[in-house]
Amino acid sequence: MALNLKEFKRFEKQIILKKVGISGQKKIKRAKVLIIGMGGLGCPLLTYLASSGVNNIGIVDHDKIELGNLNRQILFNTSDLGKYKVNQAKVKIKKIYNQIKIKTLKIRITEKNIKTILKEYDIICDGTDNFDTRLLINDYCKKNKKILISAAISKFDGHLFKFNFKKKIPCFRCFMPQQPFQEMNCDVEGIFPPVAGILGSLQANEVLKTILDLKDDLNGYILIFDSLKMNIRKSKIQINPNCKNICKN
User: Fold this and answer.
1) Which three-class secondary structure state does DSSP give residue 14?
2) DSSP per residue, 15-55
3) What is each CA distance from 76 to 84, 189, 219, in whole angstroms?
4) Does residue 3 come out as left (phi exceeding 0), alpha (psi in the -120 to 50 range) or beta?
5) Edge to edge, what strands does the sheet with 221-226 contain?
6) pTM above 0.85?
7) Is 155 strand, coil or helix?
8) What is the sign, positive or negative, of the torsion defined by CA atoms of 194, 199, 204, 206?
9) Domains and CATH numbers, the chain
10) Beta carbons of 117 and 58 less than 8 angstroms apart
């Protein structure tokens, strides 16, 4: 897949990086990435992937834009209220990079549709806000050896995970074998807006690193960001021998 002169000029500042180059930019252009959840995480994630030249992106979200979304969902404004997030996100991103191909899905991920939706993408990005969906995505990606890059935010903190299930690593169920009784999300616990932008950007960073096959030092780990202490730490997730996905095999 060749780059034309206009694309070269557009992405010149990243192409001159030795770890990217022309060959790397072609990989970015060819990559197929799915973003599940167009909220506080999905908005910056989509923006940076599109701005970097990812040419094939799917976005999934069944929600419409509400006033309470606007403090952190940076693609939207008051003129978007009441409209579907995926539709408005596509409109905004097309103004940034009109060559991009964006497939919009105004649905909720379920056991019945997950295979049809996820099968055509190389990298799956989870920015959902409930454990049922997170576990469903985790289990599908584990079974089908997909690459899953997942983020979660709450209050002043954020978590980032990467699971390359082509390798023998733990999964999200190893990290959280027991589903919490109460959902931990923005609606329940609140969110400091910049945390959403930071974690969405970190997700984009991991997606691009994965596409370029750069150092893979987050695979099977959790990265924890504390915005009050300005502290970032990384912790290895251990394989749980009792994991439903039989990660020990």
Assistant:
1) helix
2) HTSTTTHHHHHHHHHH-EEEEE--STTHHHHHHHHHHHT--
3) 11, 22, 32
4) beta
5) 101-105, 56-60, 32-36, 123-126, 147-154, 157-164, 221-226, 231-236
6) yes
7) strand
8) positive
9) 31-236 (3.40.50.720)
10) yes
Contact between 59 and 50 (Cβ < 8 Å): no
Q: How far apart are the C-alpha atoms of 213 and 234, rounded to whole Å? A: 20
For 186-245, write each residue's pLDDT tens digit.
Answer: 677 899 999 999 999 999 999 999 999 998 789 999 999 999 999 999 999 999 887 877
**DSSP secondary structure letter of residue 110:** -
Beta strands 123-126 and 32-36 are parallel
Instruction: Identify which of 235, 243, 120, 218 has the alpha carbon closest to the alpha carbon of residue 167.
Output: 218
* In the block, residue with structure tokens 């500042």: 13
CB 64 within 8 A of CB 82: yes
Distance CA 202, CA 204 (A): 5
Lookup result for tokens 């990298």: 123
pLDDT digits (tens, 9 = 90+) for 136-151: 999 999 999 999 999 9
Residues 46/75, Cβ–Cβ less than 8 Å: yes
